[in-house]
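sorry for the late reply, my laptop died twice this morning and i had to redo everyting from scratch. anyway the thing you sent over, i finally got around to it. pasting the sequence first so we're on the same page, its 212 residues, then the predicted structure underneath. double check i copied it right bc i was rushing
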Amino acid sequence: DRNLRYLGLELMSTVMEQPHFREKNPVPDLHERVVESVEEVDGSMRKIALDILDKTVTPETFPAVAKRLYEYSESNVNCADDFLDTLLKMGGRNQYALVEDFGWYLMTMTDIAKNRGQKNKQAPVVAEQLVEITLLVPAVRTYAVSVSLLLVVGALEAHGGSSKSNLVVAEEVVGAAAWILGEFHQLIEPASSAGDACQALLLPSYIMTLQP
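ok and here's the structure:
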């Protein structure tokens, strides 16, 4: 019964507020049950399930959870924002405490930025996290520069081979990527790729789409 499931999830969400309950984990398959409820058509039930998932995720389970949330966002377009907002909230929490592989997380954010296009409600968060990780994690900085180059150059979509181009990555993300390229330009590999980035950023039709 859906009503009983809703009440069960709501009760579980309340109980999960207690630290000792989370530590003991008295329901071994709780995580999988909650993941199954995340795809619920009912918006209220889905949000409670996402809240529980957010409370129970660990560094070990985060990559698998993030993968599932991203897949759900692609197959459930109407509620994609719920899934992606939760994914990014988890990733950025407590200075990225759940992220063990920053290269993987940067690529996940890149996929979100590219696949959601300009109408991307997550763009401000993706842009902020992209810059933060680049600054906070020196070990992944070279990779962050490569990702930024991919975003800037890939932000243009040619139409029929003409010179006219449109912005297909949200401007907040492009702006963050451009800042990273400028700040750490010495890490651009190969060096000749810097010219590609400059060309993309200087195209008039591209610049006209950006806010000052």
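Strands lie at 156-158, 165-167.
thats about all i looked at so far, will dig more tmrw
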